[in-house]
Description:
Layout: H1 3-13, E1 18-19, E2 22-23, E3 30-31, E4 36-37, E5 39-42, H2 49-62, E6 73-77, E7 82-86, H3 95-104, E8 107-114, E9 120-121, E10 124-126, E11 131-133, E12 140-144, E13 158-160, E14 163-165, E15 168-176
Antiparallel strand pairs: 1-5, 2-3, 4-7, 5-6, 6-15, 7-13, 8-12, 8-15, 9-14, 10-11, 10-13
Amino acid sequence: MSLEECASLIEDSHDKFKISRVVNDEDGSRVQSTSRISQSVSYRQSSNKVVKTIEARIAEFLTWPANHGEGLLVLRYEDGGEYKPHYDYFNPDKEGSSNIMEESGQRMGTFLMFLSEVESGGATRFPKLNFEVRPKTGRAIYFSNVDLAGKVDELTLHAGIPVTKGVKYLATIWLREKPYL
């Protein structure tokens, strides 16, 4: 992403942030959780020029239809903000996840875009792979949440390490199996 795109998303989101929520595996509802301490803004597909451009770029890069994205989510992690180790896929053994997957299928992949850097902390860590990525403005990482057979990949366990100095902004798009409605 360009520096201008990153700045535009941060600026556009500035007064829209709300406490982030997670999917409840048991019933599929979105709930607050102590495992995720951040604020977020959700954009509908193609909701503005910058979002539409980013969605198209990701679709071209991954050869994955843009309408299979859940919509861009901008996140802000302030001092102490974190997201404890978690998976982005929906656990097919949980009733709530099965309900969610009925509409648009599994979260096949995650595309994470760093909109800012942080003075200290804030890395994205993959503990089972002993690997982490520090935020760098404009950079992105992608990982598949399932293997080639469509089975969930437990190596994708990841965490947003606590921010200890500064504010981390990032954006994510989860790519679904079917068009996201």
